[in-house]
Amino acid sequence: MPPIGEITRIVIADDHPVVMLGIRALLKEHSGMQVIGEASNGRELMALLASMPCDLLITDFSMPYEDGSGDGLPLLKRLRREHPKLPIIVLTMVHNAALTRGMLAADMNGLVAKVAMTKELQLAIGAVMNGRTYICESMREHVIDWSPEGQERAADPASLSQREAEVVRLYAQGLSVTQIAEQLHRSVKTVSQQKNDAMRKLGITSNTQLFEYARTYGLL
């Protein structure tokens, strides 16, 4: 956390201009916070962080897949790998237990649902900048009795694994199995198997039903 009296330098990343505008408006209410950089996809974000040190990152979970930069869990894991000490708050529309646990397993410091941003973003910033983890109210039910070591055991046996949920999310966004394999650094065969396993677990027999599941159960 910056010393008392110093400005907290913040980078924000989201592909929706309205969301970016909302974040800036919320941060302007506090004189001690300054947005020093903005990005609209993973590639821009990684380049920005490499050239512009900051005290806090506020990033979207789902951004456009451009130039192989990726989004979702692979991007969060890369961010933590390359910036191990940077406080990171994730904003998301995803409301899925497996992916919520995946974000925490990627060592994110704060999780805030976009619908609760006005109410909870400032709370998250205060907690995270004081060394605490913040999980917004609507997502806490996903992590009751959860720990990184026991994440798969804590999940409902009938639910999708983190990897299966991520494959379904990306497929429902319109990526092909080949594109998903490239983004997640897995083989096409593995991704295809994970998609098929997810459909089998869910009792789904068509891609249309898979899209409807993703939309209904908070994977989009």
Q: What does this 3D model show about the protein?
A:
Residues 149-158 have low confidence and may be disordered. Strand 4, helix 4 and strand 5 (110-113) form a beta-alpha-beta unit. Strands 2-1-3-4-5-6 form a six-stranded parallel β-sheet, sandwiched between helices. Helix 1 crosses helix 5 and helix 7 (162-172) crosses helix 10. The radius of gyration is 17 Å and the shape is globular. The chain is 46% helix and 13% strand. By secondary structure, it is α/β, with parallel strands linked by helices.
Percent in helix = 40-55%
**C-alpha Rg, in Å?**
17 Å
**Structural class based on helices, strands and sheet pairing:** alpha/beta
Please state roughly what percent of the residues sit in beta strands, choosing from under 5%, 5-15%, 15-25%, 25-35%, 35-45% or over 45%: 5-15%
Brief summary:
With 220 residues, the chain is an alpha/beta fold. The chain is 46% helix and 13% strand. The two termini are 33 Å apart.
Tag the structure with descriptive keywords.
single chain; alpha/beta; 10 helices; globular
